[in-house]
Write a structure and sequence with these properties.
Blueprint lengths: L2 H11 L1 H7 L3 E3 L10 E6 L4 E2 L9 E12 L2 H15 L4 E3 L4 E16 L9 E13 L13
Parallel strand pairs: 1-2
Antiparallel strand pairs: 2-4, 3-4, 4-7, 5-6, 6-7
């Protein structure tokens, strides 16, 4: 399971966030006819892995951008704050596949107005956050090779 999918499951299961958006949490972009409020999760392309001279540390860091959309600024802010409260400082197992999260750090939320695009009639208020996950990740096992032997 990916960290993005585990994060989505976590938000749906959260009583405050799930209560506001139900299951309207989309990866990368929302459908054009998505009912508001909804959330879009976009994983920053690079997952960083901690390194050690003795081999893989099994610790990875991934950043996910969160955009919470609503028709009203106050409601977008409320949703953004509910997301922050749900995940900031989170440690433990997350998602149905139990990803071992060692820590999370949140930037935001910051709320702005997004103008309509593609001839649409109404814009949306968007609360934007960045969530950095530090988690344990399996790595392939390889035999240790002696150098210079």
């Amino acid at each position: 399971m990916s960290i993005q999918r585990a994060f989505r499951d976590h938000l749906i299961d959260d009583i405050d966030v799930g209560g506001l958006v139900s299951a309207r949490i989309y990866p990368d972009h929302a459908p054009t006819n998505a009912e508001r409020p909804y959330i879009v999760l976009t994983q920053v392309p690079l997952t960083r892995r901690e390194r050690h001279f003795l081999g893989p540390s099994r610790l990875a860091t991934t950043t996910i951008q969160v955009e919470a959309y609503d028709n009203h600024a106050a409601k977008a802010e409320t949703l953004g704050e509910a997301i922050r409260m749900s995940v900031d400082g989170l440690k433990g197992f997350m998602g149905t596949q139990a990803i071992d999260v060692r820590g999370t750090f949140v930037e935001g939320p910051d709320t702005r107005f997004s103008r309509p695009v593609d001839g649409g009639q109404t814009g949306a208020h968007v609360s934007v956050l960045e969530v950095e996950f530090h988690y344990r990740q399996d790595v392939p096992s390889r035999p240790v090779m002696a150098i210079g032997a």
